[in-house]
Structures are given as structure tokens and as C-alpha cells.
Amino acid sequence: MSVKRLSCVILAAGLGTRMKSSISKVLHRLNGIPMLEYIVRVVDTLGAHRTVVVAGRHNIDALKDSLKDRVVEFAIQPTPLGTAHALLSGTRRLSGVDGDILVLNGDTPLITTKTLKSFVTKHRRARNDLSIISFITEQPYGYGRIVRDSRRRPIRIIEEKNATEQERLIKEVNSGVYLLNTRVLPLLRRIKKDSIKAEYYLTDLLELASQKGYRCGVYPLGDEEEFLGINTKEELMKAQRILRVRMVRYWLARDVSFMDENSVYIHPDVRIGSGCLIYPNVHIEGMTTLGKGCVIYPNVRITDSTIGDNVVIKDNTVIESAAIESNVIIGPFARLRPETLLRSQSRIGNFVEIKASEIGKGTKAQHLSYIGDAVVGENVNIGAGTITCNYDGVKKHKTLIEDNVFIGSDTQLVAPVRVGKGAYVGAGSTITEDVPEDALALTRVRQSNIKGWVKKRKKRK
Ligand code: UD1
Ligand code: MG
Prior knowledge:
Blueprint: E1 6-11, E2 29-30, E3 33-34, H1 35-46, E4 50-56, H2 60-66, E5 73-77, H3 83-92, E6 100-105, H4 113-125, E7 130-136, E8 145-148, E9 154-158, H5 165-168, E10 172-181, H6 205-211, E11 216-220, H7 233-252, E12 257-258, E13 264-266, E14 271-272, E15 277-278, E16 282-285, E17 289-290, E18 295-296, E19 301-303, E20 306-307, E21 312-313, E22 318-320, E23 323-324, E24 329-330, E25 335-336, E26 341-342, E27 347-355, E28 358-359, E29 364-372, E30 374-376, E31 381-382, E32 387-389, E33 399-401, E34 406-407, E35 412-414, E36 417-419, E37 424-425, E38 430-431, E39 440-441, H8 453-460
Parallel strand pairs: 1-4, 1-6, 4-5, 7-11, 12-15, 13-16, 14-17, 15-18, 16-19, 17-20, 18-21, 19-22, 20-23, 21-24, 22-25, 23-26, 24-27, 25-27, 26-28, 27-29, 28-30, 29-31, 30-33, 31-34, 32-35, 33-36, 34-37, 35-38, 37-39
Antiparallel strand pairs: 2-3, 6-10, 7-10, 8-9
The structure holds uridine-diphosphate-N-acetylglucosamine and magnesium ion.
């Protein structure tokens, strides 16, 4: 459903003092993505034709930077004088627009497209001027309570701080999601400053609009979890747990298996192929794609990487901005840094670090190596303890290792340097010059054995 004539205002100018943080509240991340961005993404799926984010002086630069890849406009609320005042600042940006405006709090990131769509439908079917989503909760603390008359008609919202003991018992609360027709906008100016917090409460609009005879509806929709308003770090953690459960359910339905669903951390933009098995304490972050049939062992973190089919990543491996083709085995204890490309069937073993390098098909670096700024061909064997010395203290240089090369253990390749096809490098060599194809390069001093040396030494004593 594409929603016609829908504009959207997201309120995000509050100081978020209850968060006790120097970072703007709405930019706190949940599974890697700032809470405000979740809301912008959901609004995008509704097809709103304009979206205005209301920011404050204190956070407008950070908010703009965080949403630079999104099509949103910004309005400024110079001082945080409350949610009604924030909406007024936002609608100034929308002057001349008519139709419905969807208003969302910037601190309610778990809301879903499905719920918002059914909300818009309800609002339009009822031909309402003002609609609000409510939810029923056993823990209404902190939320505005929906006060209904004897005929169950909603008459006003009372905030926690202003509520009487009796009103605090009400379990139907305001979600902070509103739809209003531009007709009711003039009423925003008639909202009076609250006596306790000295703020203009958007929630007062319900009472004003219903008194003036506008059609108002308050609908309990969706489930309680969706409307969790995040005001504290504890609520942030709670929202993160909810997202994690959602994510696991999503992947379970797509043939992904977990050893322990409580200890996997999968960011929202990650893609996972069918048949993958993921062990505990695995973090898959950013724009990562996993192919089919991969096995990810415990304590692995993969960020912004593309992994092919049937890749096995063993315990305690870190992979960042790397590309890995199919049938590769990595780890345990491997570190793949940005711009690493592992071609199919390669093997990267324990304590191997690779940076900005291509490792050819079938090539093996199984133990204790550093490979940086290198291009390694096919079926190369890189012995234990091999190091590409890519940095001369000023510049980085390239190492080229061609197909079928054998690099003996404990070799240093001082870049720039090239080892030609099929060449061998003897163990313990320091290679400073190019090695021709099919040659054997050796740089170590010949061994000399002094016969009977130990016995002679003992006699001398
Ligand atoms: C608000 C509602 C409450 C509802 C709850 C749902 C009001 C008065 N109360 O309470 O009924 O149950 O949300 O989560 O609206 N903001 C501004 N400018 C301001 C003040 C706030 O832009 O001057 C923004 C904040 O950044 C935030 C949103 O508005 O994203 C809500 O503000 P917040 O202070 O979190 O309101 P709550 O106390 O949670
Ligand atoms: Mg809030």
C-alpha cells in the first residue's frame, strides 16, 4: 500500500537527559543502527512524500550527519519547550501541505511498517482529524495515560508527572504515534504550558481537539514491545534484546541454525544464506553477506564483508571489510583486515593477519604470518612465520608472489619484491631482491658444526 498525501514529522529535538550521555539520545545505536534511523527506514517503507526531522541546536549537526544518505528534511526547534512546540517547529517546514501528517517520537524505534499501515487505514476509514496509537501495559510508568469517558471515548492524555494516584493505575498509554489532519494544526498554538515541567505537551491536543468537536480516535494497535519509548540506557538495552530476538526469529525461518540463539548479534542489513550454522558469541555486523552452508564457530566478529558459500570460520577470528570466495577455511585466531580478498579454496590458519592483499585459489597460509599489501597467486604455500615487510617507515610497498611458489618458514619478504612462478624460498630467508621463476632463493648463512665442542668446553672448566 502506498499511502497518499502523507507527510511525516519525527520529533528528535529533546535533550534526552535521562540517558545521561553526551551523545544525542536518538543517535544511540541498537544493533549497530542509530534509533532515529530505524524510524526513518519505517517511514520510507510507508512511502511518505516528505519527512521532516525536528532537531535541536545541540544535535542538528550530528543528526544531519547520521542521516546524510537518507531523503529527509530538517527543522530546528531552537529550545526544547516540549513535544507540541517541537511539532510546531516541524510543521513550519510543511506550510502549504495539506492532508495527513504522521507524527512519531524519535525515541520509539521498534515500531513496524505493518502497524503503521493499519493505523493509517483506521484513521482514514474513520475520517478522523486526530488519531493516536495506544497500547496496554502492565508497566505504564513514564507513559502518558489515556483517559476515556464512561462511553470509552478518549478525552485526554495525562502525563505521569501530572497524573493522580487513580489515573496512574490506567494501563492504556500513549505510544507517541499520532496522525493528524492539517486542519487541526492551528490548535497546537492553543496548547498551554504545563505547570510542572513548563513544556508544551503534544498530548494536550487530544483534549483540545475533542472539545472543539474534531473527530478523534485512540487505537490500541500492535504489541507493547513495538512502542517501547527509550529514555534510559536500561530501556536501550531492553530494545536491543527485543531486536535481537526478532532478528533470530527472522533467520530461523530462513534455514539458519544457531547453537544458542541468545548469544548471536546480527545487524539488520546482514544477509545470511540458507543452511548456515552459527555458534555462540558471534557478531555479524554492518553490510555483511554470508553465502549458503557456512559454519561460524564461537567468538567470531565479521564486519562489512562478503563471504561465499561453504566457508568455515573457526573460533576467535576477526574479519573486517574483506571479501571471501567459496569453500575457504579461516582460523582459528585469524585476523582479516580491510581489502583482503581470499580466493576459493584458500586456507588461512591460526595467528595469520592479512591486510589489503589478495590470496589466490588454493593457497595456504596456515600459521603465524603477516601478509600486507601483497598479491599471492594460486596454490602457493606460505610457511609458518612468514612476514611481508611492507613498511619502510615512510611508505608501504607491494609483495608479489606468483602461482605455485613455496615460501619456507620464517621468511621475511622485504617489499617491493617479487617471487616468480614456481620458485622456492628456503626457510629462514630474508628476501630483498626479486626471485626468478623456478629458482631457489636462500639467504641464510651456511650451518657449520664444530665436532666435539661440548666435551672440550667441559674439560676447560
Ligand atoms: C512522550 C509523551 C507520552 C508518551 C511517550 C511515549 C509527551 C508530552 N509525552 O513522553 O505521553 O507516552 O512519549 O514514548 O509528548 N522532543 C522534542 N522537543 C522537545 C521535547 C521532546 O523534539 O522539546 C522529542 C524527543 O527528542 C523525543 C520525543 O520528542 O524523541 C518524545 O520526548 P520525550 O521527552 O522522550 O517524551 P516522553 O517523556 O517519553
Ligand atoms: Mg520518550
